[in-house]
Design brief:
- The protein is of the alpha/beta class.
- The strands form 2 sheets. A 5-stranded mixed β-sheet has the order 6-7-3-8-9, sandwiched between helices.
- The protein is globular, with a radius of gyration of 19 Å.
- The N and C termini lie far apart (62 Å).
- The model has no long low-confidence stretch (mean pLDDT 89).
- The site of adenosine-5'-triphosphate has 11 residues, from helix 1.
- The site of magnesium ion has 3 residues, from helix 1.
């Protein structure tokens, strides 16, 4: 039985179809990269997967059970960071992690040793007593990752986990994801970028205007789209394909008057 399964997941905003009948499953040890250009419906899917918004139709199953049957239990079981995380910027990194640990029901002693080790590994330990508002983008990404994984979840769901990370942190994250998968965890991540995902040995779903247009390994995905490079496929997937013309129009507009 897959860890996570989506069945015809669909979301409308008014009459606008943001996610159109997406179905896929993630097994233990699977990494699924959910890729697509800006506005293609990635975050909307993530929000449905994490129970933040309701699908218009379709459903998400966690180990075979509809997540809405026990949304609170599901949220506790999975690794995700609620968007409200940004509201807690007045807390220090340590206080924020402690709050998450309490919400997750982690023993104080377990929290202390885990948080210390994770902060150390993510080179955040010296900054643990500074307010999150003072953190850089990459530091916030890393603290978010710690808060999502501290309770050792079987399923990790992240929206753009690589955004804002420098080369080293990106490499570390990629290897962390691969090791977690090797340990049997299921991982779902959304990304609009290709460079960070190209070397991950995982499966992909390529999304265009809310619809999956290709899925499978990198080779399979490219074959379905008729390209040899993912970058070419991405350019074709975007709304505006003539990048030079777009850039010229933008500069013309900036320099007019
Ligand atoms: N709350 C909302 N109300 C109305 N439309 C929305 C809402 N949220 C998203 N949309 C629309 O749904 C579409 C998909 O948005 P979404 O945020 O899922 O895209 P995305 O793939 O995550 O893009 P990005 O790469 O820029 O993060 C967009 O056209 C967006 O305008
Ligand atoms: Mg998004």
């Amino acid at each position: 039985m897959p860890v996570l399964a989506m069945r015809d997941l669909t979301r409308r905003y008014g009459s606008f179809l943001a996610v159109d009948s997406v179905s896929f499953a993630i097994e233990e040890g699977d990494i699924l990269g959910y890729l697509g250009p800006n506005g293609s419906g990635k975050s909307t899917t993530v929000k449905m997967l994490t129970g933040l918004i309701e699908p218009t139709s379709g459903e998400t199953l966690f180990r075979g059970r509809p997540v809405h049957a026990d949304l609170t239990g599901y949220k506790r079981a999975i690794g995700y960071v609620p968007e409200e995380a940004q509201l807690y910027g007045f807390l220090t990194g340590w206080e924020y992690l402690k709050m998450v640990a309490v919400l997750r029901g982690l023993e104080p002693a377990v929290f202390k040793s885990k948080a210390s080790a994770l902060l150390e590994a993510f080179t955040l330990y010296p900054h643990r007593d500074a307010a999150i508002t003072s953190y850089s983008k990459g530091m916030r990404q890393r603290i978010a990752l710690i808060s999502a994984t501290m309770h050792d979840p079987d399923l990790l769901i992240r929206d753009e986990p690589f955004t804002g990370l420098d080369v080293t942190s990106s490499l570390v994250l990629r290897q962390v994801i691969e090791r977690l998968a090797a340990a049997g965890k299921a991982i779902f991540f959304a990304s609009p970028a290709i460079e960070v995902v190209e070397r991950l040995r995982n499966r992909f779903v390529l999304l265009r205007q809310g619809r999956p247009i290709a899925a499978g390994s990198m080779t399979e995905t490219l074959a379905q789209l008729g390209y040899s490079r993912l970058e070419d496929a991405f350019v074709q997937m975007a709304e505006e394909t003539d990048t030079a013309r777009t850039a010229a129009a933008i500069v013309d507009a900036i320099r007019s008057f």
